[in-house]
């Protein structure tokens, strides 16, 4: 959630004449003149109520200046659902997800979604796997990180495992837990390490490797490592990290040192792509070292924003003391969350989408997105001005930069000019040790059709002659040039 500061002296709030003229007379419910007294202040509570239609029009008209969500190729978040899903969500928006005894059927749908994901991700015993819905994959990552830290720090020791056997040495001034990950992780992992006082040990990018190297990750592990995070679908370029190779490197580490380091898979996007399009790719609970997995229901889970999922391979991977239990209708419902009250609408929408599509439906949707990404990437490369880093053959996402011989403009100029046509295509620099590399990234989602891809390419082709005539790149402040800051 972004932090906002109030504006002590908002512009124009004290200009009564201007405020009087701010409301269209036709917004009044019955008497056109009745709505012209004075527009409400924008940075303090109005003194009196407004008719609902007037309030609606004021808010609606201001929101018209937002970008078009369907043209936002920066976001991984779902921007289109069927009308029937919208109807279901509107019917459930007043249901509080945490109140499971009042809304037991909504809680049951959540339980079914967890069971479906456990089966999809090859839990050894889907009935024994535990999981929960969250507000998104960021909260899910926080919960998974908390479980890793708690297992490492306390509880009864487990045979042949170092994690969960440190109660006699932590907390202590000279002992600090650490979490190993690639520098390409989403910012939620930096937040987790900051909030829960865990040292973030990050594997930097090197050369044309833009994500975690398994051997380098293993070398960063020690007796204070609570786990290693593998990313199934990097937000920087859409590539999968080699989860099986990572687990193999940690297996070798255990053979040498006895350290048994668990792996969490951040499948925020890839967790709902790989099971359908890359069935032979072993990345999930088929690997014994994978303790937990998260995904975003509101990304390639195809649900509007507000839902994520966290699953643990079995009850042993989630410390019991972190779980609160609620009894309802004679049953037992474990709850594990950072939030308390939240609407049940997104969970219901996830269950609807699982029923609506099934495996074959998800496969068709994700394959279409990947086909569009691959086709568009190839056509961008064919323009001659750009060099592809990825081609959309893992996540339906590709990243590209300007060719070596292009000096008149850079990726920030391209992003700025495309925005003039309504397209939001982010430009950003890579993290250490590849700060020299700046790229554009296109996220292809359900709702971004082949026709829309044609329109994007046509706009890019139209802009190129003007960009080529520039004397030099025009954007100087790279940090301010893009809204993409991870």
Rg is: 25 Å
- Provide the succession of SSEs: HHHHEHEHEHEHEHEEEEHEEHEEH
Coarse morphology:
globular
Largest sheet: 7 strands, mixed
- SSE class: alpha/beta
Mean pLDDT: 89
| Distinct helical segment count | 12
Order of strands across the main sheet: 1-7-6-5-4-2-3
Task: Tell me the fraction of residues in β-strands, as a range.
Answer: 5-15%
Helix content: 25-40%
Describe this structure in words.
This protein is of the alpha/beta class and 486 residues long. It has twelve helices and 13 strands. It has helices at residues 16-20, 52-63, 83-92, 104-120, 137-153, 187-195, 214-219, 243-257, 274-277, 345-382, 411-420, 450-468; strands at 130-134, 178-182, 199-203, 225-231, 263-266, 290-296, 308-312, 324-328, 331-335, 386-388, 397-402, 427-429, 438-443. The strands form three sheets. The protein has a seven-stranded mixed beta sheet with strand order 1-7-6-5-4-2-3, with helices on both faces. It has a four-stranded antiparallel beta sheet with strand order 10-11-13-12. Helix 4 (104-120) runs parallel beside helix 10. The longest helix has 38 residues, at 345-382. The radius of gyration is 25 Å and the shape is globular. The model has no long low-confidence stretch (mean pLDDT 89).
A few lines on this structure:
The protein is an alpha/beta fold and 486 residues long.
Characteristics of this structure?
single chain; seven-stranded mixed beta sheet; four-stranded antiparallel beta sheet; 14% strand
Helix and strand layout, with pairings?
Blueprint: H1 16-20, H2 52-63, H3 83-92, H4 104-120, E1 130-134, H5 137-153, E2 178-182, H6 187-195, E3 199-203, H7 214-219, E4 225-231, H8 243-257, E5 263-266, H9 274-277, E6 290-296, E7 308-312, E8 324-328, E9 331-335, H10 345-382, E10 386-388, E11 397-402, H11 411-420, E12 427-429, E13 438-443, H12 450-468
Parallel strand pairs: 2-3, 2-4, 4-5, 5-6
Antiparallel strand pairs: 1-7, 6-7, 8-9, 10-11, 11-13, 12-13
């Amino acid at each position: 959630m972004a932090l906002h500061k109030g504006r002590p002296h908002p512009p124009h709030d004290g200009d009564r004449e201007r405020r009087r003229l701010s409301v269209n007379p036709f917004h009044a419910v019955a008497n056109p003149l009745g709505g012209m007294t004075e527009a409400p202040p924008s940075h303090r509570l109005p003194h009196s109520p407004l008719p609902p239609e007037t309030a609606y029009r004021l808010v609606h008209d201001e929101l018209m200046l937002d970008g078009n969500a369907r043209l936002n190729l920066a976001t991984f978040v779902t921007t289109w659902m069927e009308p029937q899903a919208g109807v279901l969500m509107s019917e459930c928006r007043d249901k509080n997800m945490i109140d499971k005894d009042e809304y037991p059927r909504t809680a049951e749908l959540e339980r079914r979604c967890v069971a479906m994901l456990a089966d999809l991700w090859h839990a050894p015993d889907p009935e024994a796997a535990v999981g929960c819905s969250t507000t998104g994959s960021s909260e899910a990552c926080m919960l998974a990180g908390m479980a890793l830290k708690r297992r490492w720090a306390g509880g009864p020791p487990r045979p042949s495992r170092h994690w969960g056997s440190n109660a006699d040495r932590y907390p202590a001034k000279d002992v600090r837990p650490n979490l190993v990950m690639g520098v390409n992780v989403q910012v939620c992992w930096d937040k987790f390490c900051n909030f829960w006082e865990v040292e973030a040990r990050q594997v930097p990018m090197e050369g044309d490797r833009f994500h975690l190297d398994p051997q380098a990750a293993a070398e960063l592990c020690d007796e204070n490592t609570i786990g290693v995070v593998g990313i199934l679908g990097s937000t920087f370029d859409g590539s999968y990290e080699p989860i099986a190779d990572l687990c193999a490197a940690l297996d070798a580490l255990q053979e040498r040192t006895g350290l048994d380091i668990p792996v969490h898979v951040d499948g925020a996007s890839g967790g709902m792509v790989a099971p359908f399009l890359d069935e032979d790719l072993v990345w999930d609970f088929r690997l014994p070292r994978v303790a937990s997995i998260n995904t975003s229901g509101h990304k390639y889970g195809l649900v509007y924003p507000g839902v994520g999922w966290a699953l643990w391979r079995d009850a042993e991977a989630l410390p019991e003391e972190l779980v609160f239990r609620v009894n309802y209708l004679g049953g037992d419902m474990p709850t594990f969350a950072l939030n308390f009250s939240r609407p049940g609408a997104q969970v219901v929408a996830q269950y609807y989408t699982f029923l609506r599509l099934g495996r074959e439906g998800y496969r068709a949707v994700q394959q279409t997105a990947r086909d569009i990404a691959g086709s568009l990437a190839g056509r961008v490369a064919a323009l001659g001005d750009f060099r592809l880093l990825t081609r959309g053959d893992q996540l339906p996402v590709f990243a590209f930069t300007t060719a070596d011989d292009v000096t008149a403009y850079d990726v920030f100029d391209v992003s700025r000019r495309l925005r003039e046509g309504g397209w939001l295509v982010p430009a950003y620099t890579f993290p250490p040790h590849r700060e020299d590399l700046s790229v554009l990234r296109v996220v292809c989602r359900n709702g971004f059709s082949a026709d829309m891809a044609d329109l994007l390419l046509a706009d890019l082709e139209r802009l190129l002659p003007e960009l080529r005539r520039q004397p030099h790149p025009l954007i100087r402040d790279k940090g301010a040039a893009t809204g993409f800051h991870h």
